[in-house]
Structures are given as C-alpha cells and as structure tokens.
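Repro:
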Amino acid sequence: LTVDPTNGDIYYTFNPKRNDHQQQQPQDNSTPCVLIRFRVTPPPAITKWSSSTTMSSSSSSSSTHRGRRPHIQAQLIHHDPLLSQGVPHGLHYHEGYLYHANNQQRVTKTTLQGRVIWSTDFSSWQHEYPHFWPILPTDVVSVPPTDRLLVADGYGSHYLHALNATTGDYIPGSSWGGHGTTLDPLRFDTPHNIEWDHSTTTSSSGS
C-alpha cells in the first residue's frame, strides 16, 4: 500500500490466491495480481447559518466536516500481465510512478495506470551473486534526490540492495546488511518495510 501525496490517492496490490503461508512459494502466474486505486473525496461540508433578529444585520456562515465520512471510490486499474507473476509485497509511490517489490525475485516500475516501465528479475543472482541468495524482495523505496532505489530483501538473505531508478539495473557494490541484529557491523533481521527519513536524509528499515 502506498499514497500519492499530490492528491491523496491510495494504491494497493495483491494476489487473490496468495495467503501468508504461501509467501515464499511460486504462484500460478495465470492468476492476475490486482492493482487498485482508492480515491478519497472529503465529505460535503455542512453549512451552518447564523443571523441577527434585524433585517439590516448581515448573515454569516461556517462549514464543518465533523461527523461526516469521506467518500472512498475503488478502481481496478488495468495493468501489464507481467504484474501477474509472483507474490506482490511492497509498493512505493515516487514522482508519478509505482515501484513494486515482489517475493518472486522481482522489482517492477510502472506508471500509475499499471504500465510496466521496467522489471528487474533477480533469479540470475543465484549464480551471479550467490552470497546474496536467496533474494525475496519485500519493499522498495526511492532515495531523493538521487536516482537510486533501495530494495529490502526481507524473506531472503536480509540485505538491502541499490538499483538505478531509471533503468532498474543493480548498482554493483551497493549492498549491505545480512542476517543479524548488530549495528556495527550493520545487520538486519527480516527487513520488511523501508522508508526514507526526509528530515535527517537517512534511510530507516523496520521489521
């Protein structure tokens, strides 16, 4: 789940056949992953009028949303069949794009309409980077103002990896972590959610 800060739209993706006990199991790719946009509209304001007892006095008004529920509209978004592969887990919005972390060794960048810009398949890492294997991405976050993404491998080898946000290519040598609980050297225990702390320009991950 992620939020577009420019208009408050909420994006959510899931696989209808997925359950928590199958998170690391291959999925039936014929079952489409669902990408949904929730558009939240504030409730109409309640206008309260107050006036004096004389005709010559002017009236005043005030409005409030107190006690009213916002209107939420859900829209199923058309998306590329490539998003039907694997198990969607983390979803991140940044500057008009969505970044999808998928437990089936994949990170994908799409438009807000679900069209795939690029998709990085990490399955070759079993032989190219065996010390990082297995890799089962759980979340992804952009690193402003750079062109980097950080990928959290929460269900695999507990590393963070950096990708180029424009191309999706791995940036060699930009991985750190591994399983553990120490700060020096820095280790992670199931890094699940990762976010960028804009106030301190440092990243933080949570389990």
